[in-house]
């Protein structure tokens, strides 16, 4: 390790230990690298400017954030809850089953796990905590687990960012997440059914048939968002980036004009919240461009590719190693760091072994979702605790079955790439 790389690592770790915002830590470590290497500090502006403003696909990120914020502020979550209650509420453990189905639908609109937990998840937890048969830990565990569907079922903010760093097709990545996402939802519903039967959890009361038309109509309108979004992408009507703008506009019309649930004051709050969230992501992206410059200059990705080649791993062996690495790192590092710093270092090795980048990308995103629900970092655990007050320990005690299920699915997707690649190939996307 050179002195420059050592300085970068030390400053980055120090910033994280001091709880400095991760974007600033990454930028500071990049500057430290340039200082030690006696290079022009102006390279910071060059790398950040070129990285941010030459990446058309990045425009999708703030637009998807904006769309999710509008839907959470515009009573969409409550309408979806009532809609899904008619469909699966009569199953054992009905409220938990409703939450999973709502997450599937909401995932097709937001692309964000945090938005899913803060919107539909909060609605479901409030309903479950009204009934003694649902413990606090179980309610929180179901919401945390189902929120991981957000970035797997398209659209997906992490997949957009992965496409930026890998060059993989956004459309193929979105298609690659469809089957794994539905398998995740199905397995979660099986886990809930197992627990509900064991604990004799209640079914939801029947909704009078006279109320069905109104509830189904109100709930069906939000379903038009993913239909328009994905239909437009795969018909060629607009690009994935343009689809994000369509989603934001569609959500705005739905919440503000049709539902009339968005006042000017709440709209301004949505704009401010979306701006803050987008700024955080942009700062992290800016820092990642500096780190990637340093790692590339030091030959780290090439060295890693040579190391993997020397181990003579098969594709599956390499992917299992990557899974293990991300599962361990996910205990300590933020998703953004894993996606923007470690993925670029692994890509040369993946290409050397002929790993399909769409398959690799979906696996990487699922790894990161698993990292969101296990300690000590577990961002979804902290978000849910902050919103509901449910202790993290109680959620972990009730959520271990969901975690095991996700790990088993991750293993199946690793060994059988067609789980990811079948739909993209069927729709005409070749290997990337």
Mean pLDDT: 85
Helix content: over 70%
Shape category:
globular
Number of helices: 21
How many DSSP-defined strands?
Answer: 0
Q: What's the Cα radius of gyration?
A: 22 Å
Work out the strand percent.
under 5%
Question: How many strands, which pairing sense, and closed or not: the largest β-sheet?
Answer: none
Q: How far apart, in Å, are the first and last alpha carbons?
A: 32 Å
The helix-and-strand class reads mainly alpha
SSE order, as H and E? HHHHHHHHHHHHHHHHHHHHH
Number of domains: 1
- Which blocks of ≥5 consecutive residues have pLDDT under 50? none
Overview of the molecule:
By secondary structure, the chain is mainly α. It is built from 21 helices and no strands. The protein has one domain. Helix 16 packs antiparallel against helix 20. The longest helix is centred in the middle third of the chain and has 34 residues. The mean pLDDT is 85.
What topology does this entry show?
Elements: H1 3-17, H2 22-36, H3 43-53, H4 60-73, H5 76-88, H6 94-110, H7 113-128, H8 136-147, H9 157-166, H10 170-176, H11 178-199, H12 212-235, H13 240-258, H14 264-297, H15 300-310, H16 315-329, H17 335-352, H18 357-371, H19 379-388, H20 392-415, H21 418-426
Compose a concise summary of this entry:
The chain is 77% helix and 0% strand. It has 21 helices and no strands.
